[in-house]
Amino acid sequence: MSPRRPERRSEEAANAVIKAAMDLCQEVGYRKLSIEGIAARAGVGKNTIYRWWPSKAAVLLDGLLSTWRLDASFPDTGDFLADIKTQMAAASRILGDPDVFPHYRALIGEAQHDPELHRALWERFIGHLAGAAADRIRSAQRAGQIRPDADPDLVTELLYGAAYYRRLLTTRTADNAHINAIVDLAFTGLAPPAESTRARSE
Length: 202
Hints:
Residues 11-71 form the HTH tetR-type domain. InterPro entries: Homeodomain-like_sf, HTH-type_TetR-like_transc_reg, HTH_TetR, Tet_transcr_reg_TetR-rel_C_sf, TetR_C. It is a single chain. The chain has 202 residues and is an all-alpha fold. The protein has 2 domains: 11-66, Homeodomain-like (Arc Repressor Mutant, subunit A), CATH 1.10.10.60; 69-201, Tetracycline Repressor, domain 2 (Orthogonal Bundle). It contains 10 helices and no strands. The chain has helices spanning 11-28, 35-42, 46-52, 56-67, 80-95, 101-111, 115-142, 152-169, 176-190, 194-201. α4 packs across α6 and α4 runs parallel beside α7. It starts with 10 loop residues before the first helix and ends with a helix. 26% of the residues are buried.
């Protein structure tokens, strides 16, 4: 699912379509959202939307990506625990935005039976964040702060999977205390062996 198709002729009309999709999804929910409704709200023809986007999910994904300004880069202060907590807390705050999170949750659900949307979510959003996390984990491994045999991708899934689970599947709050608990608990098993730590300090 690529970004808006290049033959669009009016950026103003395209932005109106995106805003209409975001507003309507908030008002009626993703299941009741339709291309017809988006077109009526935006004041454009249905065929115009289909020339620019293949589906309502594609419109909504463009809307989310234009709304969320999540920096994929990680801080690197030399303190991995502090850095990962800072980034995960920032991501959790954005995911918790009540104006956009319902849309994201709807797209996550839709992606389970729409392979094109699933691929687009990964390639255009989630994959960038996961890659940045894995890079920061490798940096921590080189600094001796994480076991060298730990798979960075698996560590990313371990840390962020817990946060996603709470945000997407429970009614509990994924707040800073929850993020800190995830990282602290996981790091107990990710820390390098004590003898390696002693050897570096000698």
